[in-house]
Amino acid sequence: MIKEYTTTVEISGPLMMVDRVEGVSYEELVEIELRGGEIRHGKVLEVDGDMALVQLFEGSSGTDVVETKVRFLGKGVELGVSEEMMGRVFDGQGRPRPPFDTDPPIIPEKMMDINGAPINPYARDYPAEFIQTGLSSIDGINTLVRGQKLPVFSGSGLPHSRVASQIARQARVLGEGESFAVVFAAMGITFEEADYFISDFRRTGAMDRAVVFLNLADDPAIERISTPRMALTAAEYLAYERDMHILVILTDMTNYCDALREVSAARREVPGRRGYPGYLYTDLSTVYERAGRIKNRKGSITQIPVLSMPEDDKTHPIPDLTGYITEGQLILNRELHNKGVYPPMDVMESLSRLKDKGIGEGKTREDHADLFNQLMAAYASGKQARELAVILGTAALSDMDKQYLEFADEYEARYISQGENEDRGIEETLDLGWELLKMLPREEMKRISPERLDRYWPKEEAEEDREETETEGEEPEKDGSEEASED
Amino acid sequence: MIEGKIEKIAGPLVVAAGMSKARMYDVAFVSDDRLIGEIIELKEDRASIQVYEETGGLKPGDPVYGTGEPLSVELGPGLLKAIYDGIQRPLDRVRDQVGDWITRGINIPGLDHEKRWEFTPSLAEGTEVGGGEILGTVPETELIEHKVMVPPDVSGEVTWVVEKGSYTIDETVARVRTEDRGEVELQMYHRWPVRKSRPIREKQAPDQPLSTGQRVIDTFFPVGKGGTACVPGPFGSGKTVIQHQLAKWADAEIVVYVGCGERGNEMTDVLQEFPELEDPKSGKPLILRTVLVANTSNMPVAAREASVYTGITIGEYFRDMGYSVALMADSTSRWAEAMREMSGRLEEMPGEEGYPAYLGTRIAEFYERAGKVLCVGEENRPGALSVVGAVSPPGGDLSDPVVQATLRVVKVFWSLQAELAYQRHFPAIGWLGSYSLYLDNLEDYYREEMGREWIDMRDRAMALLQEESNLQEIARLVGAESLSPEDQLILYTARSIREDYLHQNAFHEVDTYTSMEKQQAMLSVIMSTHEKMSEALKREVLPGTLFELPVREEISRMKYTSEEEVEKVENLKDKVSEQIRNVIEKAEAQRKGVAG
User: Fold this and answer.
1) Which domains does chain B possess?
2) How many other β-carbons are positioned within 10 Å of the β-carbon of residue B33?
3) Strands, E assignment, B267-346
4) Domains of chain A by start residue, with CATH
5) ipTM of the complex, rounded to two decimals
6) Is A121 on the interface with B (CB under 8 A)?
7) Which residue from A172, A239, B147, B562 has the least number of CB within 10 angstroms?
8) Residues of A with CB below 8 A from B272's CB?
């Protein structure tokens, strides 16, 4: 028998204090019946003797202390899962979300606790299989692997939605016919953005292999706390019980964190940096760490959380703590965006920590690692030369600096930049890298092992180019030595 | 057994009434699921308990059982090769028991109590023994002989010792008649509270470097055996790779790696890699000398707080056997954050950034457990425990309270720079900001082992790097070509030091580890090139021609020369002199030709 309480004593923000309760457990699911019969949900945040503190998912407007009925359901927050979820759109609590989805609720095969449990580190398998996204700036430089969590750090006005959508559309595993699906969770995004994603998925057929959870900007803010957990629970079911490779896209994590802050503030907790609760790191990790692979299980969960950095500030607590948990980050750059580069990927600041084991022979190609290092070094030199040119003017640059500068421009225009519907294979990306490197002298290829350099860029080929440049270079030196001897 | 009842649950904190007999830091079992917790505050009969497992589903009125014992670890054969969570539960056996996810109420002892070990006694009956004396030995792995010691708090006369043979750790292997406790039965293992440091006889100053095979560390910023170091840096600057490199290549006999609130996949990396990697000295898998403590970020936060203590207690235990132990803690910031979270739940008055006011004390206490020591026991065994802690300050900001509290106690600071990381210069340890306070202590060692020239060479190389940073500013304004030939040479050599020496690829099979011998050879090639070139400049050779020597390419590849072929690196010096001589001759011939 579930007891019903009308003993609410305090309501403040999204929190409700219920007095004289019995047998209430921590994190229990709560059903609240309003005066007009409307049903809302919440969960127990704290129990102290016979007082229970309840967090309301849908906000507290319309609740009152006299007539509101509170029922404790004796279980945690759960999500009903089944394979029928594919192609459906749900709200932040796992119900079909009109107008995107007007079908009846799914018939669950089983109920799962949305908080999940931590994966035993000993049971994990190291992510080592390459996922091709078709974007050179990711595949070639910051390679994504199955089981990784790689966030996109963006800012307002940057095309992170388009990038996320392109990744969702193009992502696949090379060489195998394994099933790949996308779980998409939106927290606090606008109707327009949601509509963009869903119509894009429908147009390209990606929707057939997608599960969508939506919490829009005007939906209850507190629901955002459970939305990513719903999505990850669905992902875990599909990955570990249905052997699928799941790509989870969570956007926008900034809104999720703001909802956490709202609850924390209502509880009058000691705030950490910028008012976010001190446990933000721990809380985020219980979302992000649900990515991974497990030994002897076929499926995997790869996560791409998207977050917008307030004022493009990477040291803001949300991107900062995210970066410490995730295995790298993809950073979108405003300067590149303004130059018209799409995707405006800042490859210097971006990083994929797991790429080393996901690239190379049998994964992508044996020259990938060296090529990557050399491209990065060359691009860094090019960017330095560019800075120098701003101060001194291009004329003051040395020949070598000029070559690097030219390289950097081409690199941005041809390698990083690509069409929104352009799906580049990994071979294509790697070959393009070599082509660009050949703009530079062969001796500058310090990051490439000699054998590989010989294989992909034979000495003879380089010497042909070199002869021309050397004859140009020697003349001024001769002049110099003559002058010296005259003295 | 003390029994109380839950009154309040707030996250990992549970308050129980009826606990008036409980003591601070005693372990308590919460509810009938027997969730493990530790008492961290007492108020009248109410005890605040930090629970090491998820608390969802607990209710007021559920029972709480106080054990009357502080949080302890089991110390004995079977520690090596193990992977533990923050409170020494073996994750491999947890998986066997409950599957791929960690559920609640798992209670598995840290050591395997069934396994039989070959025990060889080394004490005769009738000997007077004190704590720390070696009772016997067990070949724990092919690499490490486990020395079974008399627990630190036991002393007296040995009345009986077991025969050589194979026993489980529960079987008695000796009896000691003590003054205060009568006859005590000793097993191959004993328990020790994690928050209490194990006793030592004497602490000494570190006088030997912990060689790590990482050039920037060994050459410029070495840490002594028994010393402390910290690596603070923003994310993506390579803290974890450095910690992994140290765990792999540091010449410690035992490595304890504490993954404290970090990524699950990183621990998996260690777990999968260490059984395959070979120890450069013995050629045996590295895992045979390693103990892993893994409390990833999504595992309960209170257990994360305990994990560094669990790790360092295990480290101290091996140090007591007379081994040189290195402990890596990645990351101490997560440990500090766990403290902050618990402190917040206890509603303590916060200090800086919400951290508890005792943050600095706790950090200092932790690092003080490191040291080069004489162990307790008759033999005067020397042992060492070196501690390297990673710190993850928000936004890489070094004014973070955890960084500042750490810098006050550690002697070596490896400053990771995001700037270097963006340029893919790894390890991204900045040579201008980092320091090692052990250089003076270690000078005698270097002089004896590597010669006076090494110290000079190192200091000159560092001076060049310093000058480079001054010159670079000028060069940026007026262009490198307008500098004097001598200054151009400084820029050239400094660049060579940076790119050909300091830059080291952790993922390259040869470059990942460089012995001191090879380091010396490499640096001397670079420095002798510098000398030869500056002589050439005095003979009015143009810098441009010097900087284009064909040997340049070979110098840039000497890091990939295998350890067996170090003489190839040495030989480069001759090649350099020859080519520079040619340049000089050519220049002089030209001058003569013009003059003639």
Assistant:
1) 2-70 (2.40.30.20), 112-188 (2.40.50.100), 202-435 (3.40.50.300), 452-595 (1.10.1140.10)
2) 15
3) 290-295, 324-330
4) 4-72 (2.40.30.20), 78-357 (3.40.50.12240), 368-464 (no CATH)
5) 0.85
6) yes
7) B562
8) 126
